[in-house]
Design goal:
Blueprint (H helix, E strand, L loop, with lengths): L2 H13 L12 H20 L1 H5 L8 H26 L5 H9 L16 H22 L5 H29 L3 H20 L11 H6 L7 H18 L10 E3 L4 E3 L5 H11 L3 H14 L1 H19 L1
Antiparallel strand pairs: 1-2
Helix pairs in contact: 2-4, 4-7, 6-7, 6-8, 6-10
The chain binds benzoyl coenzyme A.
């Protein structure tokens, strides 16, 4: 079929809300954009295990340790669903992982900030998972079937993550003055980086227009950021936590909470490798990959032996 006609048919399918499945024809740019986004998302889940994993041995009680262990394990699972979704587009997982390890692939800016106290674990659940839910509830309705389905499963688990994080902060906020101070300090450090997770303003987002045209993204970065703020301000008020932005004021006209301009220079530095923990995160991933080499070799050998046995 003629290329122009194929594209027209594809765009009609998208417009009518149909879901695209792996074996159906798709434009090269659609495939490339999905591989970029899904692989960045997968890397974010895997790198995102590091700041929290670092606190498993220091969790303040067995109950907290069990919840944190389960959460970090869930993040690994999300990475695996997402690498599988990316593979349906014809890329191999080891190529994507090589790109992460050699520093050419991006992962979420937020994981280049350090988790300095136990309260940071609460704030990561409350803010970071909360932001991820806002973004991924939209992606669960995107036009590419395997990515939409992966996000649906991920969101169910992220809801539990967010609740356990909010509960940690609510508990600290009702605790001793020192505990309250620790919670407030973590909120102060994570608030602005969390808002930047949604990506640059729409006016500076080179990918949004194309992604929205193909219903990979259904909403722009600014709309999702605003939704997260609108959901989170009342949650902070309910537990007497202050958000570190004096300009957060309810705007009667728009029905939304106004907020201060964000420091986009910081964002671009972090995503270009100059954030507080970029080097540490990559070093940890490289070491984990190296330490896991024997497992990969053993499973390959086992799979080959099974194949030979089946032929015999
Ligand atoms: N960090 O044109 P734009 C989680 C890049 S993990 C780094 O607006 P787009 C969790 C962007 O890639 C949640 N880079 O891009 C895990 C682009 O550069 P390239 C992760 C960012 O794609 C463990 C450039 O800036 N979620 O939930 O339209 C524990 C221009 O941006 C970021 C996902 O990955 C950023 N924050 O929109 C707890 C969801 N923002 O690639 C929790 C899937 C922008 O052209 N991804 N950039 O060189 C998306 O929804 C979209 O890709 C984004 C960006 C909203 C992130």
């Amino acid at each position: 079929m003629d290329e122009v006609l194929r594209l027209k048919e594809f765009e009609e399918r998208i417009e009518s809300g149909q879901v695209i499945e792996p074996k159906q024809w798709m434009p090269d740019r659609y495939r490339k954009q999905l591989i970029r986004m899904i692989s960045q998302h997968a890397h974010s889940e895997i790198v995102g295990m590091l700041p929290e994993g670092n606190w498993i041995t220091r969790a303040p009680s067995l109950r907290r340790k069990m919840a944190l262990l389960a959460k970090v394990q869930d993040e690994a699972g999300h990475g695996l669903y997402l690498y599988s979704a990316a593979e349906t587009l014809g890329v191999e997982r080891h190529h994507l992982i090589d790109q992460l390890l050699c520093g050419t692939a991006k992962y979420s800016s937020i994981f280049n900030y350090p988790a300095l106290s136990w309260a940071d674990i609460g704030v990561i659940g409350w803010f970071v998972d909360g932001a991820a839910i806002v973004n991924q509830t939209m992606l669960a309705k995107c036009s590419y079937g395997p990515y939409a389905r992966a996000n649906l499963r991920i969101c169910k688990e992220e809801s539990f993550h967010k609740k356990q994080g909010y509960e940690i902060i609510a508990t600290l906020a009702e605790g001793t003055p020192k505990q309250k101070e620790m919670a407030q300090d973590a909120v102060n450090r994570w608030w602005f980086p969390t808002l930047m997770m949604f990506g640059p303003p729409d006016s500076d987002s080179p990918n949004s227009a194309e992604l929205m045209k193909w219903r990979i993204k259904l909403k722009g970065n600014d709309e999702l950021r605003q939704r997260f703020i609108d959901l989170t301000v009342p949650q902070a008020k309910a537990i007497n936590i202050k958000l570190p932005d004096p300009q957060i004021v309810f705007n009667e006209q728009t029905g939304h909470w106004d907020y201060s301009p964000l420091n986009w220079q910081e964002f671009y530095e972090v995503i270009s490798g100059k954030g507080p923990c970029n080097k540490e995160r990559l070093k940890a991933r490289k070491q984990a990959h190296e330490n896991g080499r024997w497992v990969r070799l053993a499973s390959e050998a086992y799979a080959s032996k099974k194949q030979i046995d089946n032929l015999a």
